[in-house]
Structure formats: structure tokens, C-alpha cells
Amino acid sequence: METVKFNYKETCGVPLNDLLVVIGSLKGYREKLRIIADTGGYDALESSINLPVDEVMHSKIDEIARTFKTPSLKYVVHIGIGGSSLGTQAIYDALMGSYDALNPRRYPKIIFADTNDSGTINVIQECIRGVQGKEEVLIHMVSKSGMTTETIANFEIIHVFLKERFGDVKDRIVVTTDEGSTLWAVGEKEGFTCISIPKIVGGRYSVVSAAGIFSLSLVGIDTHAFREGASLMREICLEDNIAENVAIISASVLYHHYQSGISIHNNFLFGPELESLGKWYRQLAGESLGKEKISGSGDIIHIGIMPIVSIGSNDLHSVAQLYLGGPKDIFTTFVNREHGSNNAKVSPTPIFSDLSHRIAGKNFTEITNAIYGGVLVAYKNRALPFTEVIFSEVSAKTLGAFVQWKMLETMYLAHLLGVNAFDQPNVEEYKAETRKILGAK
Ligand code: PA5
Fold this sequence. Notes:
The chain has about 450 residues and is of the alpha/beta class. About 45% of the residues lie in helices and about 15% in strands. The protein has 16 helices and twelve strands. Helix 4 packs parallel to helix 8, helix 4 (about 85-95) packs antiparallel against helix 11 (about 275-290) and helix 10 (about 245-260) packs across helix 15 (about 395-415). It starts with a strand and ends with a helix. 5-phosphoarabinonic acid binds near residues 82 and 144.
């Protein structure tokens, strides 16, 4: 069975009684979330929890995807940044592997255009030059606000390449945005296909909407299994039986440590293909929890748990010395999988037999499991607090479960910290300044 396990009891570093106090303070908020889920729809700030079960929205997305999912499709150019791209890339990289771009045989591929980078643009231009017909390329532009500078700039440049090569390309452009945004209006006027994201759902909570699902389904990822995993996890994370409710437990553990001065949260993911998942979480936690607020005495206070991403085993050879020997201000969530597909095997009679006799005949999964086991022992020896998230396997379903868990964890954590998990006033601040510098009204 595909599962996502959570190990915390022995290693999280929070005495059970303390944990129960924090958990108890989430009772009312959990009940509120349960009501939002039971009511359905998109009236509350937390309504993104209803995305996985929104059959009407998903059948529309599926219907549009079916019209574009043709055997000739080679490249989906996903244009978007932040919440409009990180979730899609997290799932894509986790399932297709971090070296997908180098695989000359596996198509269709998603190419991500997020920041404004000439290198990426050159590669996209090369891809467009190399295709035989416009039906091999589809642009999926995602912008909730429709106002993000990088996204608009990337679109304008890539659109010109396509037009120069093929003339009229409006049938190769899909725009996902807020219905009613300026982008939606322009998209409709230009004859592009437009898909809406519910207005209340912010970018970093949108991976289970068209923002993530549409591109992923075009390249053959089982988005139904992804939604199923998210729906099942939604129920677990709204569970009244707290022993089952992993989001309440993980949020409470993080909150307890934050209160005692541990304000760095290291997501230590074992497997290079999981790095983008770590970066998706980094944005979710960073933008949702890093806030200014006014204290009871009227002072501005700054709240936030710093999310960092480490990759195993690479970063053991980079920052592990700091994690193990440096200041004790880090809480770690290890993310690993039970069964790797990492089956390359060392010869039973290796050349460097004197140096490597203990790995003779072992496959990479066995070797990395030994390294992982060693890390856990080292953490335990130093009483460094950690939890483990273990995928039985990395699949569309377990990834759906993971992202839904983390989005609910973030909502519970924001509630504990007393911050709004759904706005990003300081991001808006720099975006507005950028537009001014560029001379926009
Ligand atoms: O999560 C968020 O709200 C942000 O990261 C946005 O997704 C990001 O800034 C891009 O914004 P937009 O989708 O409006 O182009």
C-alpha cells in the first residue's frame, strides 16, 4: 500500500505533556477547518483544502487537458513563478527525476520558465526551433494575479518565438489565472484557452488546482492518484482523533521548538529528485509564516521559522558538520523513502576491494540506507530533535498526501503563531516597487 509515515515519538524532543498542551490549543481551529471541508466551496481563506474534492473544477481541467494531450506533444512550457510554479516542479521532478532534462527519449517534458534567465530562454528557443509543428509545443502560463513581471516578460519573449516560427499560435496557449483578472480578460480577447483558479486560493496553496494539475496531466502524471492522496490526507489532517492527525502533531512540534528558541527548520530530503519538493515547502512555510505583527504592547514583532532545504547524501558532505556540531538552533524533518529505485549494484569483486569491501555486492539503496541510518544515530547521540516522513514509495498518490499534509500543517502552525497564513504583504511591496522602476502606472 502506498503510504506516508510519520515517526516523531522518540526523537521530536518534545515531552508528551507539553505536546498535548499545544495540540489542545488547536481544537477550535481544527473544528473550523472541518466545517470548511464539510461545507465545501471557496468562501474561507482556508478553502484550498477543498481543491482535491472539487469534482466540477477537475472535470473541466481534465476535459481541457484531453484536447491538448496529443501524441505529438513534446514540450509543455510552464511559465510562472513562486506558487505558480514551485508545486508543479516539485511533483514533476520527484516523479520524473532530477535528470529528466537530459533524457533524450522521454517525452513530453515540462520546461519551467520562472525567473528571467537568458539561458532558459535560449534552451526554449532551441526546443521550439527543433520541433516540426506547433502541435509539439504548448505554453501554460500561470499567474494568479496576472501581474507578475517575470511571468509576463517570459511569456512575451516565448510567444514571439512561437509566432515567428508558426504564425498564429493562439491555439497553443493556455492561461491559468483568476477569473476576472486583467490577464483573464486579455487571454480571452486574444483567443487563448483560459482556466480559472478559485479567487481565494493563493499561489502557494494552489498545486491541487489547474496551476499544478494541468501541466502535470499533460505529461502523463496520474493527477487522479495525486488528488486521491491529497483527499485522503485532508481527512487525516482534519481528524478529531489527534493520534492520527499528523498535521496537528507536526505543527505542534515545530511550534514548541520555536517557543524555545529553535527557529530554523531543516527539511533534509534524501534523494536529489526531492529537492524541488523541499523548495516548494520552503516557499509555503516562508511566505505563510514569516510576518510582522503588532504585539499586545503595540510594538512590531517579527515572526517566522526559517525553512531550509538539505539534500541527502550530498549535504552531509557540505553542511552536516554545522548541523551536528554548530549551534543547537535547528529542528530537522528528514524525508526519505522505504523503497528506492536506486538499484545500480557494486560488483561483488570491486577493484578497490580493500577500500570498499563493505559495499561489495550491495545496491545503491542499501548503501544510502546505511548512510541514512548513520545520520539518525549521529543526531540521536547529540540529542538533536528531528522527525521523519517516510514515503513507502514516491508516487503521485504519496506526493499528493505529502503536499496536503504540509499545507494543513502550515495553517495550524500559522494559527499557533497568530499570523495570517494567506497573505504576503511584503512580497507585494517589492513587486509594486519593481513595476514603478519599470515605469508602470
Ligand atoms: O504564493 C504566492 O502567493 C506567491 O509566491 C506567488 O505565487 C508568486 O509571487 C507569483 O504570483 P502570481 O501567481 O500572481 O504570478
